Structures are given as C-alpha cells and as structure tokens.
Amino acid sequence: MSQKTLYDKVWESHTVDTLPTGQTQLFIGLHLIHEVTSPQAFAMMREQGLKLAFPERTFATADHIIPTDMLERPFQDPQAEEMMRAIEKNTKDYGIPFYGIGSDHQGIVHVIGPQLGLTQPGMTLACGDSHTATHGAFGTLAFGIGTTQVRDVLATQCLAMDKLKVRRINVSGPLSPGSYAKDVILSIIRHLGVGGGKGYVYEYGGSAIDAMTMDERMTICNMSIEGGALCGYVNPDGTTFDYLRGRAFAPQGEAFGRAIQYWRSTASSNDAVYDDVVEIDGSAIEPTVTWGINPGHGIGISEKLPQPEELADPAGARRAYEHMGFEPGKPVLGIPIDVAFVGSCTNSRISDLRAAASVVKGRHVNPRVRAIVVPGSQEVKLQAEKEGLDQIFSDAGFEWRSAGCSMCLAMNPDQLRGREISASSSNRNFIGRQGSPEGRTILMSPAMVAAAAINGKVSDVREYL
Amino acid sequence: MPASGSQIGQIAGTAVPVRGDDIDTDRIVPARYLKEVTFDHMGEYPFMDERFDPQGNPRPHPFSDPKYHGASILLVNANFGCGSSREHAPQALYRFGIRAIVGESFAAIFAGNSLAIGLPTVTVPHENIEKLMAMVEADPTVQLTLDLEEQCINSPGGVIPIQVPDTARNALTQGYWDSAATLAANESKVRQTAARLPYLKGFKS
Predict the structure, then answer these.
(1) ipTM over 0.90
(2) A27 vs B79: CB contact, 8 Å cut-off?
(3) Which residues of chain A does B82 touch, with a Cβ-Cβ cutoff of 8 Å?
(4) CATH 3.40.1060.10 assigned to A165-236+262-284
(5) B187 to chain A: nearest residue by CA?
(6) HSE-up (13 A, CA, CB side) for residue A393
(7) Which CATH superfamily is domain A6-161 in?
(8) A80: Cα within 13 Å, side-chain hemisphere
(9) Cβ <8 Å between B197 and A29
(10) Is the four-CA dihedral A344, A83, B29, A419 of positive or negative sign?
(11) CATH topology of domain B10-177
(12) What is the least distance, in Å, from the CA of A362 to any CA of chain B?
C-alpha cells in the first residue's frame, strides 16, 4: 500500500466499476441534503419512479433559507415557506432523518455533519453544495454536486466521476498571533489563484495544519472550492479521532478502536507520490482580507491595495476596483464598513465565536455598523450561551441569532442594502453575493470582523490581542 | 447497459460571447431565484443583475442584445462557472437556448452539472477563444458547428480544434450523460462495494 495518497486509497475502496464512458462509478458513503438543491431532485425521483437506494445513508437539514431572527412558521417569505414544506414532505415520504426547525441538531449542513459524528475519515461524502469540501478536514473525500447528481445519489448511492490529480500544500508553522485558519486559506488562494486548483484535489499538511483543531481544519478545507479544487482534505490523526470520540453517530466502545485502525490506514503513505507540491510559509501570513470581487483578491492587512498591472488578471482587477470603489495604492486598513457578519459554514463554529467574543468583550460596536452573529448550528448556539458568549455579543451591540446560512448568500432576510460594505467571515465576495447587486464584501477571519465592527472600519486585530 | 439520454454529436448555430475571467454562478443566476422549487423559469434569469440595474432599467449585455438573439453556442473566457454548485446556472443557460459552451476553462462543479444535463463544455486556448469572439462580434450571423466526434469547431474562418475529456465526449456522443440508469444497472456491484466498507456496518466485527 505504499506510495498512495488518501485520495488514491479512498477512491479505490469506493470504486464500483468503470462505466462505458470511461468514468468511474464511485460509491458515496454519506449523503447530506438541504432544502435548496434537493426539491428538483425529489421531483425527478417521483417522475422517474426511482426509489432511495440507501435510506440509512442520507441525512437532511435546513439552512440556506432560514430567517435567523424569526423562526415562527409559516415563514414571512412564502417562497421560503414553500421550500421548507417541500423538504419536510420529501424527507417524510422517503424516510430520511430531517433536522428541521426545533431540532437541537438543525444547522448549516457542513457544521452538523461533523458535529453529529456522521462525517468520518476514509469515507466518500456528497452534498448539493459547493462547500461540501469542508468535510475533508476529517480525511473524507467530500464532493459538492448539483441537483441532477443529488438525484443520482438518492437513487443509486453513486456518482459518475473522473479521477483527479493531487496537490500537496505544506503550510509550515507556527502561525503568528492574530493569524487564523481563515488567513491561511485566503493566503493560499491568493497565491494559487481562484482557478489554480482546477483538475486537482488539495491535500493540506505541514506543521501549521498538524497543529490545527478540527474547527480550523474545516475552515481551510471549506474554501478549497474557492481555489478551484473540487475537494480538499487533511489526513486523519489523533486530533481527528479525539474530536470524533463520543459523538452521536461515531462508533462506540470497542468499535471505536477498530474504527481508528481503519481510519489510520486510509491516511496518505509517508512515501505518497503527489502530482504537485506547494510550500507555504505559514509564519509569514499576517491577518488577511479581500479587497476585490473574488476570494483570490486577498492582501495582508498592512499592505497597500495592488495595482491591476501587478496581478495575473488586470482586467478582472480593474472591474473589481470599479465595483468596490477603492483606489490602487491606498491602504486597506481603515476602509469604513457598514455591516459586520460573523457566521457561515466557513467560520460559525464555537471556536470562531470564542475568537470573535474575545475581541468584542467589554467593547462596543461602532454605532454606524449593523453587526450580527449567526451560530452555525443550534448546538453551537447552546454551547455559546452556556459560555456566556451571547451576552458578550449582545452587550457590545451585536444581534445574536439562530442557526443558518444567513448573510453568506442572500436567500433569507439577512442582506446588504445598496452599496453597503460588509466585513464578513463568510467565503465569497462575489458581486451581489450578499443580496444587494451593488453591495460590497470584505472577507476576513471572525476576530478581524469583530475588530472591524468595533472600529467601524477595516482594522488590525493584533491591536486587540 | 442502457443509454438514458440522446446522443449529442454536433451543435450548430450562431454564438454569443460573454467576456471575462472567473464569471461565478452568482452572476449567472443570483441566489434569490434559487428559492423556486422547480427549474421551470430559470431560462428567464441568466445574468439578471448584469442585464438590469437595481431599478430594473436595462443595461447593455450580450444576452439582451438583439444581434445575438437565438444563439445556441456560448463563448466564455477562463474559470467560467466558479463558486456555488447551483445547477440552476447551467439550467438557466440551457433553458435560455444555449446548447454548448466554449471557453478557456470551466470550474469543476459547473462542468459536471452541465454534463449531467447534456450541455457540453469544451475548451480552446486563449488565442482561439479571442479569435472566435472577435469573429462573432464582427458578424453575429456567423454559423459555427461544434463537432464532438471530430473534436473541432467548423467556422467560416477555418477549423478550430477543441479539447474535451474523453469521458465527457463519450458520455455525450453515446448518450450516457444522464448517469442514473447506468449507475442503477450496476446494483449488485454497488452492494458488493458497500459490503466491503467497514463504516457501513458501524465497525462491528
């Protein structure tokens, strides 16, 4: 079993057959669904008379359309209500466990899978959402798919796929104070480009990644897709096993010991051969923010906004400046913000909330700024409340919400208005992403969002540590 | 094994260029349209926020330009379809009338979603996409024929080679792009594969 990566091993163990097209038929060990990308798939199931192939391997929640400040039903938005009713009916008709409003397990699909111990090493996983790569933090091959493919997985528990190349990304540590997993992944995407991962799976390793908690590894893997890689993963280790021990769907007792043996066996061999290897000096990464309209438009907080000609895509950079209204050569530090958002599948876990709260504690949100904290799951919310984080945020002037995708993607009432600028712990700064076609997004870590909220402008969190 | 889709070998028609790298799926279909539980109306929404300003006034965009009306081939630059996995994006383009997309490169999930609905995404190098875009901008009535078997585009300006992965080309030309039936036909092998995976039995010995 030498020379193989985790990707090679898991791909092999899940290969069903080679299809007439030459594609691989790959078995999918776990299927997670949510309300937005599944209704059309269930409609196809009904039209085509298909049955659920492995009902015990599909789990559902609702996240994208949840109004996080008003959970009463029916929802005020009739379309959101219709979407909610559709997933309630579909999961009931097909016998799929559904963690809906009122369930302690409801939350962002990429937060609850790991939290429940459903996501495990050496597994294949699919979900109709591009941030499915998040689950790769566990050494899981996790694929974001479209709705027709959701139908394929419901009906057959398989996908037709082509094998990809593997790029190893070594991040050396330790990270500097004030720099978090978010800064690392923004820095990786800045250097490799938003299309740089095309044709690759990213394997993250090195001393900085080894030292990270599972929450941090999830932040890294989550944004693999923003770098153009279909999925990203970290090899499972003691940190992974410690996280999984005792979780609801993790193996219990003696079975857990056997699971660890299996999980270890799926990790990349020491002599694994990679198609490409990239070295990143993690200790040189400073708090990083975006200035443009894709996640590759990142810069260190002490840098000046780049000249378009210095960048790989000058035309794209000029378009970015036109939208953002910023000037090349000026500092990014001090750009005024209107909205602060801590949340999303990238940064809404308990450690993210703790990091933001530690900056906020005893301070006040700038009166010009609308600030919200949206926990990734109801479980994260309850834990944060137990620790008194909700009080710290509320005292400072943040709104404390219920779990959902919220302002990451504008499918619920949490949206930018007009040309507002948001300091956001989410994953995409695309034009229109946060609900206003003219709205502007600056991506950063939760601690940096907290600092920006207090100052009313893009700030250096290191001054608050 | 049954092929469940039509065989797609040639796409002929006029073309529409949409210039720019890294055009994401939020730009192709803004998220508010994802609140519809069917794809039925997606054909009305492609590039909505680029074709209209926030007040609803039209803005110039190739998808609104009468000279490109009826085009079936979309010409794009690099990393087209990056971002969200929403199948609504290729569905919107398909339902608008697009039957093939030619570009410098495509984001992985977008290309997979397009293939799954029988919408070919094929690549050509930068200089050739520029040549095609310039040709079409100069004369929008130019007829192009994209030939997946011969792996080329026939144009009045000559034959331009295209790249398309063998697996995708086979799926399209042999009618296997809708995978469900093919995957389902292997049911006994699927059960055998599942039986070998210890986690499906909860690691019970």
Answers:
(1) yes
(2) no
(3) 194-195, 228, 294
(4) yes
(5) A156
(6) 30
(7) Aconitase, domain 3 (3.30.499.10)
(8) 24
(9) yes
(10) negative
(11) Aconitase; domain 4 (3.20.19)
(12) 37
